[in-house]
Amino acid sequence: MTGKNINNFKVVKFKYSKESSSSHNLFIKEHSLRVQEDDKPPGRTLFVINIPPYITEVYLKKLFLQFGNVTSVIFQEPNTEDHKNYNGFKKCYVVFASRSSLLKSLKITCLGLEESPIKTGLQKWMQEYNDSVVKPEILQAEINSFMKKYDKLEESKAKNQEEVDKEGWTVVTKKGRNPGLARKESVEIKLNEKTKISSKKKELKNFYTFQIRESKMKNIVQLRKNYEEAKKKVALMRASRKFKPY
Amino acid sequence: MVLIDKLTEMDSWDEDSDENDLSIEEPDTTGKSIVKLSTPKQSKRKNSDSNNTKLKKVKYESISQDIPKKNKNKDDMYKPPTVEELNNLKETENLYNNNLFRLQIAELVKEISIKSKRRKSLNSWLRTVNEELENLPEFKELSLSDIKPSKKKSSKRDIFINNIASKYSCNIKTDQNLVLKFSKPTNIQSFGLKECNSYPGPNIEASINIKMPKLYLNVKDFLNNRYLVKRFYYLIYLAEHITGVRKQLCYHENNILLPVLEMQPTKDEKLKVKIYVTPPEGYFKPSRFLPNMNNVRINLFDKSRIEDITVLKNTPTILYNSAIAHDVTLSTYSEFVKTVLHEHYNVQEGIKLLCVWLKQRELNIGYGAFTENLVLYIIIYLLVKKKLNKLMSSYQVVRNFWSFVSSTDLSKNPLSLGNCDKQTLELFKQSFSIVFLDCTGSFNAAAFLNEDIMKKVSAECEMALKHLDNPRTDSFHSLFLTKLSFNLQYDVIINITESLPLKECLIIDDSDRAKYVGYGTLQNIGSLIKVIKRGLNKRILHIVPRIEVQLSEENTYPIKKVLLGINLNSETAFNFIEKGPSLSDHSEAEKFRQFWGYLFSDRRFRDGSAHVAVYFKTNTIRAKRNIIKQILQFLLTEKLQLKFRLYYNELEDFLINKKIKAPYPVGTNEEGCLKVINLSDELGQKIRGLQMSLSITGILGLSDTFCYCNVYPPIARDNDYKSKNCKVQENSIIFNTENVDEIPQYVQANQLVLYLEHSSKWPNNLEGVRHIKTTFLLEISKKLSEIYNIKSRVTKNHLDVFYEGLIFRYILYVPKEVALMKKATSDSGVVKYVESQNTLNIERDLNILPKIIGALKGLQLQFPSFGSGTALIKKWLRCQLIDEFHISDITINLLNASLFLHNSTYSESCTPQISFLRFLKFISEFQWELQPLVVNFNDELSKEDLADLESKFQQHSDTIQPLYIITPYDQGASLFTKESPTREILIRIRQLANITLNLMSESVIEQKFFDLTGFFSPNMDGYNLIIHLNPQFNSRRHENTSDLNEQQVILEKYVKRDIENIPFVEFSPVDEYLKELRNNYRGIATFFHNIYGGNCIGVLWNPPALETKEFKVNYVNGRKLVDDKLVLNIEAITEDLYILGKDLVKWIERTK
User: Fold this and answer.
1) Most exposed of A81, B592, B734, B941 (fewest Cβ within 10 Å)?
2) Which residues belong to any copy of the RRM domain (chain A) (predicted)?
3) d(CA B299, CA B177)
4) What percent of chain B has pLDDT over 70?
5) Quick check: B357 contacting A, CB < 8 Å?
6) What's the helix, strand, coil split of chain A in %, to 5?
């Protein structure tokens, strides 16, 4: 059996473990893109799609070991935009150590491991629960090491912020006698609003007759708008047969 | 006020814009007279090119010139208003509530208008009847004793007699062998609501008054039922000779002495005619029927066993008199009504609206009800007294009616249409509790009206007024379009139909019996109500009887059904002590003792006084609610030996977890929540007292438990969990081996959020902030252990404290963290703060949620049934497999809160059960497509805010989430319904609610019996797959009420030990499983599960996933290749479900 091909993809039946009675279809092909990426070297990379959600890197490495050494397994970041139709099936790139392994792997029609190296179900959840219980000392140590790094970083940053640079420019900071404005969007918006308000204040509203007339017209328009809105609502209600009292 | 201001502005604008020096006469609906306007200045400035002949056009033309024409649509808005339009707009603001209300009234009136087709067919039928009546055969010299079945069928007369005898039997007795001289009637006349154009269609019920010929009657016929018997036979005489599709005798307004003939003249089932038979005008003197006259001298009613006949002879027979007076005055009164209402079209419309309003509340059903005729009477009264007039809009008519009824104590103020003297009025007042004297001054239209029903109506009017003043848009809907069935209106419903005919329950003396002669059966019910009223005393607001009467030939007992609806007074209903009279008041005290039998006891109270009292021992809130049931059982079963059905608190049973025995008294969820809240306050004080580097400024609850809405609040208990499956590590119990045989019971953590004082020293780095947060939690943990020896555990995000047998989970909220997450720098170097899903979620869960939980807690204090009612809703929904993923707990809380805050359709819900039923009603009718739901806590959002938000909703209603909830705390963003519920789920909930509610209503009204557990167990039909779980790995299995296999667990009281271990917290494999399923397969299938211990998961393939697709990388997921096409790989995915739920899944059932 040579297996089926479609759109350059080869269809491979995948069995999770020896107890499995049914199989997923994996679709594999040699990875080829015009834009080359360092972590996915051409000629050695296998592109696999439709991988069941629970399959991990460890599992895949073990799975593809039969064809030769696997350098790395890279999962593609799932596209989470389509929230509603999201599913957890994965795409991944398997990078082999040699091209011959890749070619070997492309001939296969059936894949699967005798015994799965990953934990699922109850055992997994119990493991996760156990892992969530951490000794406070360990937590503290982790924090301390991070803070040390962070402090160093801050220090070096502070050193870099010299007040006058080599060419004689002074960096305006928030501190000092004459602090500049923070470059924030909110600050800009506030400034814009301020100017708007001040220009409005200068404007005379009830000076010309046309202004008065306009404002009255506006009133009528508002009333009309309300009326139209109400009419729309009632039409909607009528459409859903809401006026039958009994 | 705002509206009025606008209008006055508009008026003054008229002045300005009127450029030609002209005066305008404009009759105004509001009654403003002539407006003279002139502005010479303007006319000078503008050229007078617009001096058209039409005055009004000139007036506005200049405006249209001023405004630039941008597009057609806008132009429409800015075109000069016509006078009609202006008037219309003004009228709407002045005479109606608002635009929407006016339009809705117009729609409703259209809906209830009577079709001309139907009207025509009625008229043509009336013409034929007129002819038939002209040609009625005459039967002279027929006496009562002649009426018996005979075999003679030779003459028309014989056939007639035979027909009467075989078809009808008169259950009214009289003293003489009356002679009946049947001949054609003297007069026929239409009357009633339909005749006055005030009958709410689309069905017609016309009333016809047929006057008996003088010859048929005798002057003394008003005595001893003679008239009633003659009237009865005349009705039969008519019934036998008028053509119609269906004919039957029934009672006028369920009044057992006033039978009428109800006909369906044509095949049209929506057309009905009621035929009344009355004496000719002026035949009987109306004064004969005043309430001081006696007209029955022989005991003719076997139901009223009067021992002393002389008593009867000397007592005025007030109800008997009223029944005949009704007939005597009928034509005069209806003529009067007709003339008063003539050409009052708006008033007629108002009456229609009121009738619809009344019908929806079902207060017009049964004997003693507040009928449409009484509505009519009050409207006529208001017209006569000039409180209504022709120019008022129907809205104003309705409003005036409500405000009159709600503000007038009708039991103290007798009404009269004519100019009757004070003496007569006083006479009526003494005999009747409510007096609506008609224009003749001899008939009280409210003679049969039940005082309690009147009270209820008056309360309803008050509520309706409140509704009108509420700016919410759907007030019209709840006033006129929502049907409020009997079982939704009352907290308690008692059905005593089973014990009919009612035995005499109280000793009634002869004079009382004589007074109400003819209505003895109903009097019995009245006295039963009195007993209940006395027993429940101040606990109730209203007790409304619904007595349905049926005329049937075989059964002489006319009452078919008796329901009593009770509205409780939430403040006093559940008092555990019924305080009687003081001991020193011997006679009263003795009466009290007799009434309460073995329940009473003499007690000394704290203020030193000694009273007789009844004390009910209770230890839970549920038990307190049960007091009502206890009292009713004592009164009805033990005292009166009646059989009855009570609909009150049956559903509360489903909130009780019988499989877990708590160490302290627990009823429904209130006690558990209270315990948690108290302990959390205690612990909170301790934590706030700790000397920390930053002081803690606030601790607020996040869990449902803190607003009493949790169905099964965690129980404080001893946690000495020992099992071979577990071991201890650092104060925490964790799993020992991989192969366990059972999972410990679920322990829910009570989540709280900690707020810290402001500090500028937080690092400017997200990771840094997070690490410092953890340090802070570690600090609390350490200090708690050092100072109080309270065990706790820290993870990166939260702190779990084990305190007094409960787990409290504290999460730290640092605004800086959110700010850092939002922070982004644009290309130009400007710092922006961008909202993302994550930041929104943190804000929502840690900043907004606690505010809402706090507000809900306040609501619980105000309305004690809120929390348990919400819990009941939750339990029901979850049992229908709709879980947190489909509609979140907080959404349910808010939905129910809106009912308590804003829905004034009902009086306050006093029990969880009624609150649940009303929720079902609400959710089955709520138009989430059309309007947002407003939950305005403490009225924090102003009218303007709400209008703004609602119009925003209207504009974007296509793009935003289906259910939109506006609260004061999230700036109207409806954060809690962003992801769920979906349209499909809302429709599903609507259907479920509808069915459940209908079944409940049927069980009350039709007395059908069915098993309530059906409501709280899921229907597993219709799912593609059913995943069956191993119960031993379901940590919440004890919460399942429908599974009876599980053994009861007895929890021990918490004891403080030196060495304590933190139990398993929030460990639920089923939840984890569902989370994984939904994370990975939510695009392919939808999952349904009952969180309260459900052992099955329903799986439904999503229709798009089942589609066959061409091969494309985007479509391969979860599919397999068959004939070069992609189809869903159902077998493999089913196996995935096994793999993901290894050990937890028992087996997967594939359904067809």
Assistant:
1) A81
2) 44-121
3) 16
4) 89
5) no
6) 45, 20, 40
What's the domain count of chain B? 4
Residue B1124 lies in a domain: yes
Does B927 reach chain A within 8 Å, measured CB to CB? yes
Q: What are the chain A neighbours of B1118 within 8 Å (beta carbons)?
A: 50, 87, 89
pLDDT at residue B989, as a whole number: 94
Q: Tens digits of per-residue pLDDT, B1095-1141?
A: 999 999 999 888 888 888 888 888 888 888 889 999 999 999 999 99
Domain boundary, last residue among B625, B648, B671: B648
Domain check: are B60 and B186 in the same one? no
- Measured between beta carbons, which residues in chain B are less than 8 angstroms from residue A132? 795
In a domain, B256, yes or no: yes
For B657, B911, B935, B1042, B1137, the CA distances from B1070, given in Å and listed in that order, are 20, 33, 33, 18, 13
Tell me, yes or no, whether B72 and B137 share the same domain: no
Chain A partners of B1111 at a C-beta cutoff of 8 Å?
6-7, 9
Q: Does B1148 touch chain A (CB under 8 A)?
A: no
Chain B residues with CB-CB distance to A31 below 8 A: none
Confidence of residue B22 (pLDDT cuts 50, 70, 90): very low
Interface check for B199 against chain A (CB to CB < 8 A): the answer is: no
pLDDT in tens, B812-852: 999 989 888 888 877 777 777 888 888 888 989 999 999 99
Q: Is residue B359 part of a domain?
A: yes
Within a domain: residue B501? yes
Please answer yes or no on whether B1131 and A130 come within 8 Å at the CB atom. no
Residue B1062 domain boundaries: 1020-1150
CATH architecture observed for domain A5-117 = 2-Layer Sandwich (3.30)
**Domain ranges, ordered by start, for chain A:** 5-117, 204-246
The tens digit of pLDDT for each residue in B444-472 reads 888 888 889 999 999 999 988 888 887 66
Instruction: Indicate if the pLDDT at residue A96 is higher than 80.
Output: yes
Same domain, B172 and B315: yes
Backbone φ and ψ of B653, nearest 5°: -55, -30
Q: What is the ipTM of this complex?
A: 0.85
Note whether B246 and B356 are same-domain residues: yes
| Interstrand relation of A110-112 and A70-75 (parallel, antiparallel or unpaired) | unpaired
At B51, is the pLDDT very low, low, confident or very high (cuts 50, 70, 90)?
very low
The answer, for A221 touching chain B at a CB cutoff of 8 Å, is yes
- Nearest beta carbon to residue A245 from set B112, B763, B1143: B112
Same-domain pairing of B33 and B149: no
Q: For position B501, which CATH number holds? A: 3.30.70.3020
Q: Are residues B295 and B401 in the same domain?
A: yes
Assess whether B634 and B511 both reside in one domain: yes
Q: Which residue has the higher pLDDT, A172 or B238?
A: B238
pLDDT per position as a tens digit, B1031-1063: 889 988 888 877 666 678 888 888 888 778 888
Q: Is B328 left (phi over 0), alpha (psi -120 to 50) or beta?
A: alpha
Burial of B888 by CB count in 10 Å (0-12 exposed, 13-18 middle, 19+ buried)?
A: middle
Q: Is B1125 helix (H, G, I), strand (E, B) or coil?
A: strand
Which residue in A217, A225, A232, A238 has the most chain B C-beta atoms within 10 A of its own C-beta, making it the best mutation to test that interface?
Answer: A217
Residues of A in contact with B62 (CB under 8 A): 213
| Whether B90 and B122 share a structural domain | no
C-beta atoms of A237 and B930 within 8 A: yes
| Residue B287 pLDDT class (50, 70, 90 cuts) | confident
pLDDT of B886 higher than 90 = yes
Q: What is the pLDDT of residue B186?
A: 84
Residue B367 in contact with residue B490, Cβ under 8 Å? no
CB proximity under 8 Å: B 817-836 to A = 826, 829-833
Q: How far is B263 from chain A (nearest CA, A)?
A: 22
Q: What pLDDT, in 10s, does the model give residues A109-119? A: 888 888 888 88
